[in-house]
Design brief:
Distance between the termini: 33 Å
Number of helices: 10
Radius of gyration: 22 Å
Shape: flat
Strand content: 15-25%
Order of helices and strands: EHEEHEHEHEEHEEHHEEHHH
Strand order of the largest sheet: 1-6-7-8
Helix content: 25-40%
Structural class: alpha+beta
Length: about 400
């Protein structure tokens, strides 16, 4: 049986790119709170002393983007310093109306222009592109183990900072986990890496290493996966006193692999944050994950990847592919037909099925969009019906 290794990384909410994602999704949620049909494409750049928020809105909502931006940054923990903090930065807002050509294609799908077939044909895809959803039976949440563990470390690192358990921690940080596999089965963690933003006067080797092992690693990693002699790298470049947007410029949408499956599955290239759910980059990727997760939860495959492709202004997907890497327990062609029967991938159908026109996106800006049961696309509500239908053939 082949022995192999796979590593994935995560970042904390204070990472510069995640600060940008948080601002963009905070603006989106502010719009959807007032106007569930609002259209948003919001991009953010954060750097020393400055946040620039730009993009397109088509909405009746009245949003104070400056205040929303400062609040998102404060919530992350950037307050009280002069280099980058909610109360000291300059906020530049460059927001304009969405292109009328794009708006027209989304609002009236090509299928509907000659007379609508049904209500779901009214809404066209907001852009062309390909989207992937994935699930695998390596963890209870049906996520690849490396990215799930990396997210746990990053989230735990933020928690002990917020709770004051480790008072020297600051908001920025990165984690990385390598997992050893035997065949398709993950068996142990073989190395860990945490880069933690910190205040002055911290002894990384003597103090921080022991603190992070006790308060972050041991609570986050199941003991059966963690050898006692696992290599554990802490701030391998040395001090990490200068962090966040003061150290590196952050941009919305630059952590798409962290947001999805940690490189374990394919990615279509589109980012999520700052995009309202008519944008299939976001909603169709969620729908593909929903479908793939239900296939695996139904026991019809041990792993499943769903690819969707769209043409701008058309409601129906350009193509649909279901790939189980030869783990399907039924005929693969039949499984693909089941997926297309049980899941309507037209944008309007996705919005309704997953109830996406709500302000639920700000929490997704850090620690991954998948493997978190609070989000509707993580539901396995279709699994039982899928299994029952598959058993009837």
């Amino acid at each position: 049986m082949r022995r192999w290794f796979f590593a994935s990384e995560s970042v904390t909410e204070g990472h510069p790119d995640k600060v940008a994602d948080a601002v963009s999704d905070a603006v989106l949620d502010a719009v959807l709170t007032q106007d569930p049909s609002g259209r948003v494409a919001c991009e953010t750049m954060v750097t020393t002393g400055m946040a620039i928020v730009a993009g397109e809105l088509s909405t009746m909502a009245v949003v104070d983007v400056d205040s929303v931006t400062r609040q998102a940054i404060a919530d992350i923990g950037y307050v009280g310093n002069t280099e980058f903090s909610a109360d000291h930065i300059d906020v530049t807002v460059l927001i304009h109306q969405q292109s009328p050509d794009i708006a027209a294609g989304v609002s009236t799908a090509q299928e509907a222009r000659g007379g609508s077939i049904d209500a779901y044909d009214q809404l066209g895809a907001g852009d062309q592109g390909i989207m992937f959803g994935f699930a695998v039976d390596e963890t209870p949440d049906l996520m690849p183990m490396p990215i799930q563990l990396a997210h746990r470390l990053a989230a735990r690192l933020a928690l002990v900072r917020r709770q004051g358990v480790l008072g020297y921690l600051r908001p920025d940080g990165k984690t990385q986990v390598m997992v050893e596999y035997e065949g398709r089965v993950p068996v142990r963690v073989t190395s860990l890496l945490i880069s933690a933003h910190h205040g002055p006067g911290v002894d990384i080797e003597k103090q921080m290493r022991a603190d992070l092992m006790e308060h972050v690693v041991l609570p986050a990693i199941p003991p059966e996966l963690l050898p006692t002699d696992v290599p554990f790298y802490v701030n391998p470049s040395g001090n990490f006193e200068v962090g966040g947007p003061h150290a590196d410029t952050g941009l919305t949408g630059r952590k798409i692999i962290v947001d999805t499956y940690g490189g374990y599955a394919r990615h279509g290239g589109g980012a999520f944050s700052g995009k309202d759910p008519t944008k299939v980059d976001r909603s169709a990727t969620y729908a593909a994950r929903h479908a793939a997760k239900n296939v695996v939860a139904a026991g019809l495959a041990s792993r499943c990847e769903v690819q969707l492709a769209y043409a701008i202004g058309r409601a129906a997907p350009f193509s649909i592919l279901v790939d189980t890497a030869e783990t399907s327990v039924i005929d693969p062609d039949r499984l693909e037909k089941l997926v297309t029967e049980f899941f309507d991938f037209r944008p309007a159908a996705i919005l309704e099925r997953l109830d996406l026109r709500r302000p639920i996106y700000r929490p997704a800006a850090a620690y991954g969009h998948f493997g978190r049961p609070e989000f509707p696309w993580e539901s396995t509500d279709v699994a039982a019906d899928l299994r029952k239908q598959a058993e009837s053939f």
